[in-house]
Amino acid sequence: MHFTLHKTDIAKQSSINITGSKSESNRLLLLQALYPQFLLENISNSDDSNLMTNALISTSNVIDIHHAGTAMRFLTAFFSIQEGREVTLTGSKRMKERPIQILVEALQELGADIAYVENAGYPPIKITGKKITKNKVSLKANVSSQYISALLLIASKLENGLQLTLEGEITSVPYIKMTLSLLEEIGVQTDFFGNVITVKPNKNVLEPKTLVVESDWSSASYYFSLLAISDVGTEITISSYKENSLQGDSVLVDIYKHFGVSSTFSNNQLTLKKEPVRLQPLKLDLKNAPDIAQTIAVTCFALGISCDLTGLHTLKIKETDRLVALKTEIEKLGGEVAITNESLHLSPANTIKENISIATYNDHRMAMAFAPLALKTSLIIEDAAVVSKSYPTFWDDLESIGFKITK
Ligand SMILES: O=C(O)C1=C[C@@H](OP(=O)(O)O)[C@@H](O)[C@H](O)C1
Ligand SMILES: C=C(OP(=O)(O)O)C(=O)O
């Protein structure tokens, strides 16, 4: 369904409660399946986390994880060690184009039994669960950190733990650190030194614990963008957020200072406020925070400033080729964008075309990143329901702060 967002202002002061991080949730759901003594709070209500929850309790031998990248990668590792179980993991048309070979080869080297069902290197894959006793493997670290997190999540259940050697430049490092922090939090011993990560096998009973998921920082990015575009003095409070987050996208606090957005933490609430600012062009390497690239590019476009974003080499294999999608949609609105395989240059724009229909390419972040433009012009967001991949209540939340949406 296409939604029309009418040009609007947002409330001067408002508050929103955002659901738990999908990245933390999908890790903790898998860890809970391995260690049922842990209780989880503020789990994400995203499609991707619901798919993860259902896959972990499914008794079927074919599991479809639709568009959920982390679920696909993490479950590949999980089912590799479910002895005696045979599962085919499949997904959406796009999931069948998202590479998984680096993870499959690492697991096979450790002794796992995995076969490709259609195209070599891509889902669907058929996994026959086995006991894994080997504990040393190397893998390329510059394509997706999800392969590394997948291996780390099962590592403490392997007979001899795991020693991973990461080859090449390491991408999306904060996501690897998030995995290690969550393992430490439940009592698993880990070490990350240079390009080697070690996880000790768990020989003890881990203490039962309730783990509270922090809210999703990638979802918060759309409010940073709204505030950057809004009038000086506009304030929004979002919860529940911590100053010391496990999520790399919390770098938004520093990045959005550039646009005059200040951040104040108090009692797990984060208040964003638009301050006066002299706008400058932006240059940024986003290899540690790829999911906020779309948000930032659209903020810059709305503000009429140029940006040079680099470190975007993973964007081509996400829900869609996000570099091409950004260029196509910003150019429909009258902007000028140049892309390479790993970078995006946006020229300063002085007008934004009205009533343009933005295609979303099955990518939740395309829909959400372009929504803040409604502070500048009316626009249409195609297939607006895509947001449910990570943030199902996104449109309701925008309406609650003053958005006028024809559904
Ligand atoms: O581990 C995770 O939870 C994620 C890692 C990142 O992927 P890459 O490592 O493939 O960049 C990120 O883009 C994705 O949304 C979530
Ligand atoms: C890339 C993303 O998710 P995934 O890789 O888990 O599909 C995302 O949420 O932006």
UniProtKB/TrEMBL annotation:
Pathway named in the protein's UniProt entry: Metabolic intermediate biosynthesis; chorismate biosynthesis; chorismate from D-erythrose 4-phosphate and phosphoenolpyruvate: step 6/7
Classification via InterPro entries: Enolpyruvate_Tfrase_dom, Enolpyruvate_Tfrase_sf, EPSP_synthase, EPSP_synthase_CS, RNA3'P_cycl/enolpyr_Trfase_a/b
Binding site for phosphoenolpyruvate: 22, 69, 98, 146, 322, 365, 389
EC number: 2.5.1.19
GO BP annotations listed: amino acid biosynthetic process; aromatic amino acid family biosynthetic process; chorismate biosynthetic process
SUPFAM superfamilies: EPT/RTPC-like
Domain of life: Bacteria
Protein name, as recorded: 3-phosphoshikimate 1-carboxyvinyltransferase
